[in-house]
């Protein structure tokens, strides 16, 4: 069992049939994401990031091409619960408490019940004392943190995060950006993060794939060789700002090709 | 979190004051009622509270035993009917391809007129409580089936993705997501079912039972015994309201949030006309097959259990079919002339009052609890009283139908109006739009899904109301026809009437559903997308 599986996409494309028309969401993509790394996907909204992530999770079937994770198909990995996903919408079950929702992540992944692990994770996302509350009693940011704890509770080999911080306020987001990376680094999971925030992508990932508007293609493939842990001094560094600028420029060039042509 | 109650209302003084005020209100209503009854004593319409009390005390034993009998039948019907409704919904979710067919059949059986099924069940079961229990079950299973179906499906896509992302299958989805998500819907269905089961048991007792409140009702009506009729209506209303409140309390006890929408709009799976036609053909074929098949299976005698081909012969092929047809269609015409105006009036008044109340929110504080209470009263049990009050002309029957539909529509539309998104309301507030403007541009569209759901549910209710009023009070239309032919064992006509009503109900339902899809496609497409 490889705990840090590579993710390998060969000619992966996806189109949807909508009312008889075909909508091409992902153009053929070839890429290999090294095991144990965090890869960030950035791109304009609607470009196909979520679709790509769902393909990797095996929640959608590819129209063309194949995806392998380690030596397995996404479906096989999913069937043995090697995968966890945090969605844009926290998708908490309203009839379960915070503790119940996090424990569900373990139960669904067929890991033995372990109240201590669950409580530690809740503490980690800063929700100690809220174990018995229902999702409706929490703010959007707190709900999202529960969803992240739930994703980690299953001890996944591959962690897929789809804009997990979109609903979280800026201060909390900053805190999570600081506190969460050590967590999944310690667990050695491979991970793919979809985000809208360039700074977040640079801060969290080892590699950034900038995608074009729909259908998604890889517009730029940028390595992030910043040292970890990435504390305040890294964020203030020149290298960090240079990387941010590079990603932003790649996004701009591909999102507004006309402006570039006019220059 | 629950909305906090006002600071005052928690204190003991305030509670005593509130109870006092309520007590004075009740006393005032009773006084008015008494005066009205005494003023109209010659017209045999209203029994005074004093007379009703005297009757109840004088016949406490009899009424008590009858109530116990009816409650027993209702409870058993409640159990079986809800079990059937919930299992049907589960089957529909587990076999999505069969859902449309299952829904159509469920609707068809629900629309069967109690007036006709009562005597038939009586023949099938013989003496005893079988028909009452069956009718009580048939009165509730559909109103449980629909919300549970919505509840089982209503979970957001994200919850299904969550379970799937761990590689778990449909069983886990059912256990972790669908069943818990459906629980509040089940309780909401049970709440509607509680009074309906009581009503079903009562109507079941109208035909050939030996004991029960239904028997006493028919006896009192025949004898024009006003205090007795009113006593039974008051008891039925009280029991229904109690049952409704009890299930509601159970829901609160379980700390279930009330469901968002109870009745989702119908799904249009087949976009092409021929697919819809094919589905309709399939539904017809399956219905005929079940009809004939079950009769053959149980070896029911042909004299009484008419097969589809017998009905065809009776109405089309056999000698005298012309006369049969003319009699049946004539009665149907009479009935439709009452049912359609009553149906439309009930819907329009319910929706209209709901809208008016949003313009005058102070009033709704008084009107809504009252309507919630009145919704649970078995209008049908009071149908003779309404018809007596308004006369045997059209007005009485139309009023019974409208009343039957009015309260559920009012509550549903209220609910729909309250679902107008906060942000949209804020937008109108920012521009200081007039309440009328806000109502027409923002709240009315939010109300439409609820109105259409009510319109669909009102079809069986209208059939029940109109046939019962015709049977018990006016002696005209298809309700009276069915009662007559049932008592003269003219089973060809009885089965023909049942088939015709079933067909009319399904057609009316399809018409409303088509209208609903067209309107909602414009006003709230998100309701249709699935
Ligand atoms: N299930 C689906 N059916 C049809 N079209 C879809 C579906 N899922 C996504 N799309 C389309 O694919 C495109 C990419 O969507 P998505 O991956 O959600 O974008 P992103 O996450 O980058 O904002 C969009 O145009 C969207 O409308
Ligand atoms: Mg997305």
Automatic annotation (TrEMBL), chain A:
SUPFAM superfamilies according to UniProt: P-loop containing nucleoside triphosphate hydrolases
Keywords (A to Z) from UniProt: ATP-binding, Nucleotide-binding, Transport
Signal peptide as annotated in the record: none
Family statement drawn from the similarity comment of this UniProt entry: Belongs to the ABC transporter superfamily.
One Gene Ontology molecular-function label: ATP binding
InterPro entries: AAA+_ATPase, ABC_transporter-like_ATP-bd, ABC_transporter-like_CS, ABC_transporter_ATP-bind, P-loop_NTPase
Name of the protein this chain belongs to: ABC transporter ATP-binding protein
Species annotation: Alloyangia mangrovi
ABC transporter domain mapped to chain residues: 7-238
From TrEMBL, chain B:
Compartments, as annotated in UniProt: Cell membrane
Name of the protein in its database record: ABC transporter permease subunit
Top-level taxon: Bacteria
Keyword Transport: yes
UniProtKB keywords: Cell membrane, Membrane, Transmembrane, Transmembrane helix, Transport
Membrane association type: Multi-pass membrane protein
Record domain ABC transmembrane type-1: where: 67-251, 332-516
Transmembrane spans: 24-47, 77-94, 101-121, 133-155, 185-208, 228-252, 336-359, 366-388, 394-413, 493-515
Primary location group: membrane
CDD domains in the cross-refs: TM_PBP2 (cd06261)
Family under the similarity heading: Belongs to the binding-protein-dependent transport system permease family.
């Amino acid at each position: 069992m490889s705990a840090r599986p590579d993710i390998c996409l060969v000619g992966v494309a996806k189109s949807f049939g909508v009312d008889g028309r075909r909508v091409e969401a992902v153009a053929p993509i070839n890429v290999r994401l090294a095991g144990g790394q965090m890869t960030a996907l950035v791109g304009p909204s609607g470009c196909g990031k979520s679709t790509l992530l769902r393909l990797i999770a095996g929640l959608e079937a590819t129209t063309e091409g194949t995806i392998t994770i380690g030596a397995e198909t996404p479906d096989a990995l999913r069937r043995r619960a090697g995968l966890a996903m945090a969605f844009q919408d926290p998708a908490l079950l309203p009839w379960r408490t915070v503790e119940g929702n996090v424990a569900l992540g373990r139960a669904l992944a067929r890991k033995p019940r372990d109240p201590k692990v669950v409580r530690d994770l809740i503490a980690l996302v800063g929700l100690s004392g809220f174990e018995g509350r229902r999702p409706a009693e929490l703010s959007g940011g707190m709900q999202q943190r529960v969803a992240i704890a739930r994703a980690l509770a299953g001890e996944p080999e591959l962690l897929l995060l789809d804009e997990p911080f979109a609903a979280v306020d800026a201060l909390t987001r900053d805190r999570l950006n600081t506190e969460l990376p050590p967590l999944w680094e310690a667990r050695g999971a491979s991970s793919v993060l979809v985000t809208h925030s360039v700074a977040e992508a640079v801060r969290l990932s080892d590699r950034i794939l900038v995608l074009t508007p729909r259908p998604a293609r890889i517009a730029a493939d940028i390595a992030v060789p910043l040292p970890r842990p990435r504390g305040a001094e890294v964020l203030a560094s020149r290298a960090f700002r240079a990387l941010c600028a590079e990603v932003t420029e790649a996004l701009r060039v591909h999102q507004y090709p006309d402006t570039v042509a006019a220059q | 979190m629950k909305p906090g109650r006002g600071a005052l209302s928690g204190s003991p003084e305030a509670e005593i004051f509130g109870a006092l005020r309520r007590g004075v209100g009740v006393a005032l209503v009773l006084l008015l009622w008494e005066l009205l009854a005494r003023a109209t004593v010659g017209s045999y319409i209203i029994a005074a509270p004093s007379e009703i009390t005297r009757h109840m005390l004088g016949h406490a034993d009899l009424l008590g035993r009858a109530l116990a009998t009816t409650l027993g039948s209702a409870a058993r019907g409640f159990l079986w009917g809800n079990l059937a409704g919930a299992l049907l919904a589960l089957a529909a979710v587990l076999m999505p391809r069969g859902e449309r067919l299952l829904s159509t059949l469920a609707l068809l059986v629900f629309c069967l007129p109690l007036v006709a099924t009562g005597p038939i069940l009586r023949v099938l079961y013989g003496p005893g409580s079988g028909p009452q229990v069956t009718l009580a079950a048939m009165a509730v299973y559909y109103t449980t089936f629909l919300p549970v179906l919505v509840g089982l499906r209503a979970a957001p896509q994200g919850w299904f993705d969550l379970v799937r992302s761990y590689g778990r299958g449909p069983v886990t989805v059912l256990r972790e997501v669908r069943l818990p998500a459906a629980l509040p819907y089940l309780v909401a269905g049970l709440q509607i079912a509680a009074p309906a089961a009581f009503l079903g048991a009562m109507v079941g007792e109208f035909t050939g039972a030996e004991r029960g409140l239904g028997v006493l009702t028919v006896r009192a009506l025949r004898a024009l015994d006003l205090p007795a009729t009113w006593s039974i209506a008051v008891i039925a209303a009280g029991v229904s309201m109690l049952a409704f409140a009890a299930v509601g309390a159970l829901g609160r006890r379980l700390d279930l949030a009330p469901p968002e929408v109870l009745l989702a709009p119908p799904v249009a799976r087949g976009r092409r006309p021929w697919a819809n036609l094919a589905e309709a053909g399939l539904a017809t074929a399956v219905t005929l097959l079940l009809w004939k098949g079950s009769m053959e299976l149980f070896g029911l005698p042909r004299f009484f259990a008419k097969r589809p081909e017998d009905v065809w012969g009776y109405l089309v092929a056999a000698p005298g079919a012309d006369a049969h047809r003319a009699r049946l269609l004539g009665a149907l015409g009479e009935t439709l002339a009452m049912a359609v105006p009553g149906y439309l009036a009930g819907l329009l008044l319910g929706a209209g009052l709901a809208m008016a109340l949003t313009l005058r929110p102070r009033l709704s504080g008084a009107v809504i609890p009252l309507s919630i209470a009145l919704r649970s009263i078995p209008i049908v049990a009071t149908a003779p009283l309404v018809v007596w009050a308004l006369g045997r002309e059209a007005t009485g029957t139309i009023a019974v139908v409208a009343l039957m539909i009015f309260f559920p529509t009012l509550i549903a539309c209220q609910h729909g109006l309250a679902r107008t998104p906060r942000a949209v309301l804020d937008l109108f507030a920012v521009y200081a739009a007039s309440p009328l403007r806000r109502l027409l541009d923002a709240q009315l569209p939010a109300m439409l899904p609820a109105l259409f759901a009510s319109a669909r549910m009102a079809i069986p209710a209208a059939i029940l109301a109109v046939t019962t009023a015709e049977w018990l009070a006016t002696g005209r239309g298809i309700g009276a026809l069915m009662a007559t032919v049932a008592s003269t064992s003219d089973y060809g006509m009885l089965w023909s009437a049942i088939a015709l009503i079933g067909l009319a109900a399904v057609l009316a339902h399809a018409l409303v559903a088509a209208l609903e899809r067209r309107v909602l496609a414009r006003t709230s497409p998100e309701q249709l997308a699935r």
